[in-house]
């Protein structure tokens, strides 16, 4: 690449783009760690996007109608940080750039949502950003239909690298976006032909434009260092009704000795090479130095956005007070006022009627009363709508012909669904939930972990939560998944025992601000165990005494979900023999652990033997069997020794010894 | 679809294909559960494949040079079971078909590897089969190059549905297979335009042939009910040097009232409709009835294979005795005799030299001595070769120009890599290992669980196993992953403390027959803690006393991996204050749990306080802190409270309180 030619062809543009490159080089050198090549390669695209197209206001980073800029290739975080610093985001002063990758800095190795206002999503695990962006774009479509173009009408721009496109989740995103004709989604592919291991063709020969085209995208191929070509391509992309992919041919680490090599992907810290690159750029030579006129030009881009924002504010202020309040409620992620009373009414009705239903059906019953009062919910399933019971009568299908619809047929795309849910929640004004079989959390883990890490209150409706699903067999029967999810920080794992607990779990999920929720629900019918109506949400305490011992308390049975009724039956057997037995329902360990010690000790006092019952592996249960007591007690576990099997559910429960009789026998063995 | 026309056009073919359809209908009806539509739609393709092309011998299901038949759309398991019964596999008598989906039957809801010889892999979780098949085909290529075409020269045939192709892992498989030009891989796409939620276009409009074409595949589109077209397409596919995709336009549940509907995907059990379908087919009307001449025709296909097998056996017997022995050793999955001595020599050298190295480097040092004596290893990385340290000098790169190479650049495809590794191991004659960052087990979980469920001894080289990776931050720092993996049944999770334990872990991984292994390895340098050479593999016991208390034993420190040296330093602090402290290294919980109780109690006797040290979440540790003791003792944990952060590693260890000082302080607090 002839740097001199690039400099002279578009000198003003060049200086602006160069500021990104030199800040990147300096920050990575100071940290002695990071990824220099991507920001240096994509600086031209970013500069044109921010200067000519992106709708953003650095003084109001959360303005709802801003365009979203998603750096899917998150290792190139310095691109984002440099853009934020240059355009004047308050959270991104130069001191943060100088502190790149250091303890307490907002400039983490990869962009972390929540560290600085202006970081739209956490990226780094490849493919997540492009998959999030589908959710951002869906939320925008729905809200544009709901509030009108004067209030919501913006684009989602994504920068994705070769790695993002090799990850399978990208295909799920591309397929979903293409079918949904998400015309406001524009993806720049950083086509530099380099990955960590070498040139891309060592691992992939995919014709990416053809691949996107095959899924219904608008595709362009340009020189990613030509500002006029970039501008023209963005203009065309904005005017096409399909999602757009712009393949930008770029040089990784442009102008550096490591240009076009896999070395250029990583940390370029050699001081001589760094200075040589700056010299070739014609850039200021000082560390972190940006010429005043260049900084001013960048800040002017931000100022342009402030004017656009003000125009929007005027339009927004013209809305009725009630519309404004409703808009603000949805964007604040606050549950509607009616929610609590609605849940209470359902609980009362259920406690009185005491139906026997599967908790997946309980969830549907709850959604049937929730969705009409929560217009911000966006539901869906990864091709298991009838099994996950995620669709309610009022929702309507979201598709290119119906942007008011709130139900999404995600296709067989668990990972893409979870990542899109993250994007919707991050967009604001949306509260996504989505379903699949619980076993296939395995497929969605990459995005579910990011829900937890980012503090995104998405709700995962995971049905068929144990061997209770029966004949489909061990590939479909989760046994370790409750443990996996419970081990994940900042995740509420609910396993409700009946419809009442399911409704309570939904209430907690919908009022959560910073924690995703997983609802583990049964395929098989369960009796109502909460037959006495309580207005209080008992699930909020995580665990509670469902049935206390009669007579001397000799045993405590702890159980979740479908095994709570087994524990109650075991209690009957034990009480019949005069063994006083308490049953504790534990629908959410995380919430129980968050209660004060006094409450926990009231629920699980020292003394009695303890037996836990859950149709999963024991892993993690020792915390409650032994972990927190004043004196040594005996404990045991009734559950799965390993993987399940294919057979009718009742037979499986018997064969694996998860029955009232087995539970009672273990209690008696402990009591000697 | 005009059934009468199909019947009359190819009457002999029709009868054979019909047998698959009626067995499916009867088995699903008897089980009142299952998936009828796919076997009914793909019966014609299967019949032509088995009759005209597939190289198989029902009397020798494990014959190494057989073609592999992979039912990626595993819910259509009755297709496979019917084929096996009809052609005469010993493990698949009619009684098994009649027992479909029942306790103890070989005919599980989805095909389970190990249930019956002839089931090549476990499928059901969509996309796994097609991704496995890439591994099958790679193993075949390598072995064809190694042993010559007379010994290894077969095809891998796959049946994949719309769901398989929507799953992201399919793109990883398609991309990898296309780049690798796996000409012996032939995928039939069951193009029936139906998924569970409805027609495919509700979720996807992807032009699949174009998508495969974009990744370098040979593509054909045919009528999947026309036996001549099927035959011709397979012939062309076999003769093309690229992997082939044959798009077969089919009718789901052909000839049944539910044909071409999403209802047809599931269990078709209505007796009247069932009888009507049989009548339209002109099939025998009895339950599970197959006309004798039709059964004989199917068995003749199997007999044809027996002759081909015999020819192969003659060629194999002509090999030298040593070649035969080596071939058989590799197919039996037995480690080479030299392995043990080689590992011992490395251990001795390390214990004497006591180098400070990262365990990812320790793993490379081990592989450098292992790979030259284990020609069956196939290594690789998901685009992190230099970081995972998975490549050794002798391996050579596997690519279209070098089929002798044993190292695979998988690209940024963790899930595809893991699924391909399963395929290689299942093919036989190969022992795969592959690397990525440990955090990205999240992406590979779908396939890793199947390694465990199938009992496939693949080895996962998971480096950068904690906050010790430093600046890349929380997206790249596993904290819950050790717990997730340990919670998974039949998985050995090794977290070695130094090079000696790493070498021991590799020895165990390479001698494992039925259990996959995960090696959790550090980015950061670690001191050698095993400075006294022991010939015995101490890691095989899972946990052992690394340093015992001097004086009265008041405390036990348990640690794994990088925290073992922290525990040793804490012991020094405590012993200096006269507190007798034992340090137990616990590189593999699963193996420790498998020791007899006497050994476990010797290592972890009752009495002393216990503190566990691990740079991950506490989840699961209570098992060892409290779970198995004769009297109540106190315990505590030094580790991560939640997600990590971006900063240099040393700073993170200090900030999160994972130091010798913190550990010693917790011990003293417990001792009061």
TrEMBL record, chains A, B:
* Transketolase-like pyrimidine-binding domain: residues covered: 357-528
Which UniProt keywords are given for this protein, alphabetically ordered? Calcium, Magnesium, Metal-binding, Thiamine pyrophosphate, Transferase
What is the reaction catalyzed?
D-sedoheptulose 7-phosphate + D-glyceraldehyde 3-phosphate = aldehydo-D-ribose 5-phosphate + D-xylulose 5-phosphate
Any single Pfam family the record assigns to this protein? Transketolase_C_1
Q: Which InterPro entries match?
A: THDP-binding (IPR029061), Transketo_C/PFOR_II (IPR009014), Transketolase-like_C_2 (IPR055152), Transketolase-like_Pyr-bd (IPR005475), Transketolase_bac-like (IPR005478), Transketolase_BS (IPR020826), Transketolase_fam (IPR033247), Transketolase_N (IPR005474)
Enzyme Commission designation: 2.2.1.1
PROSITE patterns tied to this protein: TRANSKETOLASE_2
Name any cofactors this protein relies on.
Answer: thiamine diphosphate; Mg(2+)
Class of the enzyme per the UniProt entry, highest EC level: transferase
- Keyword Transferase listed? The answer is yes
Q: Please list the GO terms describing molecular function.
A: transketolase activity
Coiled coil stretches, renumbered: none
Assigned protein family: Belongs to the transketolase family.
How does the record describe its quaternary structure?
Answer: Homodimer.
UniProt protein name:
Transketolase
Lineage, highest ranks first: Bacteria, Pseudomonadati, Pseudomonadota, Alphaproteobacteria, Rhodobacterales
